[in-house]
């Protein structure tokens, strides 16, 4: 019965249907058994009659209990479904509002959240498909339309949007089939059907015409011309746009080495845009048709060929006013072919120092961070190309300076949106993008602006929360990058950081259980930087057992983990009595701290000495060290020549507190002739 009730409450439609069928069968069988029992009572055999009566009551009780459970479960499921329906509708409205504002990524996120509440809501699938069309994710749009049709096989909107997606992918026969389905479902949609079919026919005809013109250009008289002759032909505005697109592609294929690159330059190759109005108009068109797209792609391929490894050609191209003005527009065009080749052209510049300097000298890059960051939404190679360029550009100080202009108004809202939509975007690209933002924090102005952005912190925390539900390797990389970004931002100190300190430290405590050692190390790193901002955060992590966890990490961790871990302990023991007592209990005989005092890393030694000094006030702590070499170790550091004076200072304080708490250590101090060293180190000891 328990299994049956579990099946009836399942969200899996197949399991639910199976459970209902089983319930009906049981009820039918029980009714049949009751009829059989009533028939057996007619039998005069005394034994059978008593048996049937004896078995009847438990059966009735079992049936009554089952029906009661069934009724209760049905009410609970109806209540839960009603609540989810209300939430799904609210999320749908939020998605619609974002769609109307042109924020299609946010719209997709809201529709997805709605579908998590109601998997069978057809409107959410079609609305999300429409948003996917806007961001050119045609395959995903088709997938959502197919799901909408599973919810409602006569959904006209699903067939209409699926037809649009297939048309964009140049799947002409599939697009026609979708539009034919609309007419079959509703014959009154004949006008819509005709318009859609005409669009398909025109698009297919145009594509065939373009292919034919391209072949004619490449196989005809142009193919036999030299670079100089080709350029002469391309400068004259007396042919159609497809002719020039074909000729430019031929020219791109003809340029194979530096000699041909020089020929292109000396024969005024870069003046094609200025001399040929047809070429210029097609390249600069705001909303490009297919022929203009092909022309633009051809030009981009040509410029890649003539600029590869040629600094003079690179300079001439960037100083052309139309090129410098169009590059950011081409990146934002939404046309994948244009974006792909534009990114390839820019990468020729960004991958070397001279090229980057040309970019920052001749172009306004203030909006490029935002434009390139948008490619995190792409699922293809464009995302990786954009991140490569951004990673290169962050090496230039002038680029960082230009990024300050639009950081708060444009970049941070987009970045926080990407973080909150981590499940929907290209996660490999998001991880790289987050790392790039972390690198930009080397600029103090950028770091201050980011650290003061409340929404940025909220987005980081949301991504950390989601990592507990999503354990893919790509999501782990996002988490790793976000923790690195948080560490960099925590170099600042402000009221926003203080506000989030308890939440941030709580998330880090949870991450200490992660199987990925890199995540654990960075979580400890964030703890070491967030805890100084809030005494409440220190109190909470101490209650959560941070001391015991840090001791465990210090035993097994490498130098970086030890550096963060001992700093975290030093912060906790400085202000929290419970932390000091926990450390004495967890680190028996201070074996871990003594090991850290032998480290070659001065930061680790200084913090270990500080922790030891704080813990010596705990009763019995100093006595537990009587048979150790702690006096010799502390003397070595107190009288040493460490670069960081905090090492001598903390060692001297620890040595002084040790002798005060347990005078028997003074005998060891005298034996080692350490009184003179301790006396000379007293300048560091303000109070023992």
From TrEMBL:
Q: Which UniProt keywords apply?
A: Repeat, TPR repeat
Q: Which InterPro entries match?
A: ARM-like, ARM-type_fold, TPR-like_helical_dom_sf, TPR_2, TPR_rpt, TTC12
Map the TPR repeats onto residue numbers.
Answer: 156-189
Q: Name one GO cellular component term.
A: centrosome
- One Pfam family name is TPR_2
GO terms of biological process kind = axonemal dynein complex assembly; sperm axoneme assembly
Top-level taxon of the source organism: Eukaryota
What is the name of the protein in this document? TTC12 protein
